[in-house]
Amino acid sequence: MNAVMDKQKHRKLDLHEVLTWMEQDGLVDKDNAHMLRTIAIGAGYNTRHPLQIIAERNWKHPQHSQLLSLEVLTEWFARRVDIPYARIDPLKIDVAAVTDVMSYAYAARFNVLPVRVDETTITVATAQPYDREWMDELSRLHRKEFNIVISNPDDISHYLLEFYTVAKSVVGAQVSGHPVAGNIQNLEQLMELGRTGKLDANDQHVVNIVDWLLQYAFDQRASDIHLEPRRDMSNVRFRIDGVMHDVYQIPTSVMAAVSSRIKIIGRMDVAEKRRPQDGR
């Protein structure tokens, strides 16, 4: 009996079940649902989330002609399974904290993404609410309560890769360059680190961080990127619609190399650290 219950607890929703719910809620007629079930047989659709498959059909709501986009379907799905819906806002996520909850390989295996960590709880975004094998394992590891929210499966996959890529690059830059910023005891040492340039601005990890910052700022429609050196951890902030947002914290040793990398691609003087410079 317990084995049967565990199997139900750790199951993945399939296309047939989601289409049945949509029929019950009047989101799709029987003919369209039957057609998609027929097409899906042997088409390899079992590797993707049912909502992604359905969204590609570009169906409209039978009553008010609203396009059943993936976002609309995800919000409906959250109500259907009675779990809070959450739109992932990368500007409100502590990337360093959430990527420390589990490895990228483990998160990708279940397509889940930690989105909030505090002293007692960890909140994880998923699109498979009944597949909770990961929750049992991580609860024992972290000794915290896990909460889940429903998010767009495309967003989970996208930010999963983005968050873990930049986190890996920051760690990689620390390892390949100078010892971590926590070992820098005073401002003079920090300035000396910048002068000696022991962390190579052309290190692939540093290149990845700068590329990510520029792409991320573009995606978020930021007008400015602020790199703010501090003694231990340096801040990265974006100005979006006139409002400053904290985006990430980077060890100061890594930030020095990031600044040098930006000077290089902007054709500025890397050695000049006191006077303002213009680049393009």
Description:
Helix content is 47%, strand content 14%. With 280 residues, it is an alpha+beta fold. The protein has 3 domains: 80 residues, no CATH class; 62 residues, no CATH class; 89 residues, Beta-Lactamase (2-Layer Sandwich), CATH 3.30.450.90. Strands 1-2-3 form a 3-stranded mixed sheet. Helix 11 crosses helix 12. The longest helix has 24 residues. The radius of gyration is 23 Å and the shape is elongated. The N terminus is likely disordered.
Summary, kept brief:
With 280 residues, the chain is an alpha+beta fold. Helices cover 47% and strands 14% of the residues.
- Strand coverage percent: 5-15%
Spell out the helices and strands N to C. Answer: HHHHHHHEEHEHHHEEEH
Let me know the number of strands.
6
Task: Give the biggest sheet.
Answer: 3 strands, mixed
CATH hierarchy: architecture of the largest domain = 2-Layer Sandwich
Low-confidence stretches: 1-7, 177-197
The CATH first-level class of the largest domain comes to Alpha Beta
- Proportion in helices: 40-55%
Strand order across the largest sheet: 1-2-3
SS-derived structural category: alpha+beta
Mean pLDDT: 81
Task: Offer a few descriptive terms.
single chain, 280 residues, alpha+beta, Beta-Lactamase, 3 domains, three-stranded mixed β-sheet, three-stranded antiparallel β-sheet, 47% helix, elongated, disordered N terminus
